[in-house]
Amino acid sequence: MLTAVQDPRSLWTQWNRLDTDHPHTDPAAMPASPVLEQFRLTDRTALITGGGGILGAAFARTLAQAGANVWVADLLVERAQAVADALTAEGLSARAVEANVLERPSLEAARTTIGPVDILISAAGGNAPGATTSAALSFFELPLDAMQQVVALNLFGGAILPAQVFGRDMAENPRGGVILNVSSMNALRPLTRIPGYSAAKAAVSNFTQWLAVHMAQEYNPRIRVNALAPGFFLTDQNRYLLTDEATGELTERGKTIIDHTPMERFGDPADLAGTTLWFCSEAAAFVTGVVVPVDGGFSAFSGV
Ligand SMILES: NC(=O)c1ccc[n+]([C@@H]2O[C@H](COP(=O)([O-])OP(=O)(O)OC[C@H]3O[C@@H](n4cnc5c(N)ncnc54)[C@H](O)[C@@H]3O)[C@@H](O)[C@H]2O)c1
User: Distances in Å between the alpha carbon of 60 and those of 87, 250, 269?
Assistant: First the structure.
């Protein structure tokens, strides 16, 4: 088995890459570093909704590697279990729980199983082909129910309901808590073809700011609410848009994205680790109400 230092996904490995003048070969041998200590999540309990998905699993791995006791929640509990099993096999602390983020009773049942959490990452979400315009499906024909499902999944299930169910404990916890939502490039400027998803993610960014202010002012100034805005990561929800199913080649849309990404590649889920850990740890103790793009420069590039 790879040690944390050898494993390319390990946070220690990422830090060592940055510190090439003073490479550390063994985390245990490192001198105590107050700034690195801020990133530790020992004694923290974290829940990741949609944790069986590609980005959700990466979030779970990041928090578990930093020492958190992680709960991986998913509508498809077998996916959550597979992620928890993989992390447990690496000696990390992870358990699985079933939760449908669209059903408050399902979230309440998960809360009963888990107890209070210090960190909530709301990673359940995604687009659906039925809510996507195409040559065969014009904007004028887009079915309302498909768009409603996408908005419900990304806004209500993707951010609001989990914050209602798990945020209450944070309000009562003197050390507060962290809520991290997952927005998107769509929130900054809408992408073509996916109007419901774009509108929902714009609303997630807006809600993130609203909740940051509300939690701090009304309940507990030590609750922080932020969001990641990932750029383009090849996952199950967008593979049909970005690659040709038969050949695996990039579609025109996939090529356009790479052309507009100064770093000239899709993101790897491990690219989210550092920003995620920063948000979820004491290192970001004075950061709330922000949405940070992790996008290889996509949102900065005007196209010219
Ligand atoms: N992949 C990207 O490029 C990208 C970019 C920006 C934002 N995002 C966002 O990141 C988040 C994670 O996306 P991903 O790429 O890992 O997708 P994914 O499809 O791999 O994972 C989503 C997970 O959510 C679960 N899920 C779906 N409905 C659910 C429900 N009602 N209750 C509980 N779980 C449910 C699915 O079972 C799945 O395991 C989503 O909010 C997505 O919109 C992804």
Answer: 8, 29, 11
- Which tokens belong to 304? 């010219």
CB 184, CB 139: distance < 8 Å: no
Report helix, strand or coil for 178. Answer: strand
Hey, what's the torsion of the CAs at 268, 270, 275, 276, to 10 degrees?
120
Among residues 59, 197, 232, 298, the one annotated as catalytic is 197
The pLDDT tens digits of the residues spanning 221-240 come to: 999 999 999 999 988 777 88
Spans in the chain with pLDDT lower than 50 = 1-3, 5, 18-20
Q: Which helix (H) or strand (E) holds 292?
A: strand 291-294
Cα(124) to ligand 1 centroid in Å equals: 4
Tokens describing residue 43: 């004694």
Mutate to test the pocket of ligand 1, among 81, 103, 184, 237 (most ligand atoms within 8 A of CB): 237
Contact between 83 and 60 (Cβ < 8 Å): yes
In-domain check, residue 31: no
What distance in Å separates the CA atoms of residue 26 and residue 5, rounded to the nearest whole number?
A: 7
Which CATH number characterizes residue 165's domain?
3.40.50.720
Beta bridge partners of 94: 70
Residue 137: domain span: 39-300
Structure tokens at 221: 């100034």
What radius of gyration do the chain's Cα atoms show?
Answer: 19
In-domain check, residue 23: no
Return the closest-CA partner of residue 98 out of 123, 121, 120, 80.
80
How many domains would you assign to the chain?
1
pTM of the model: 0.91
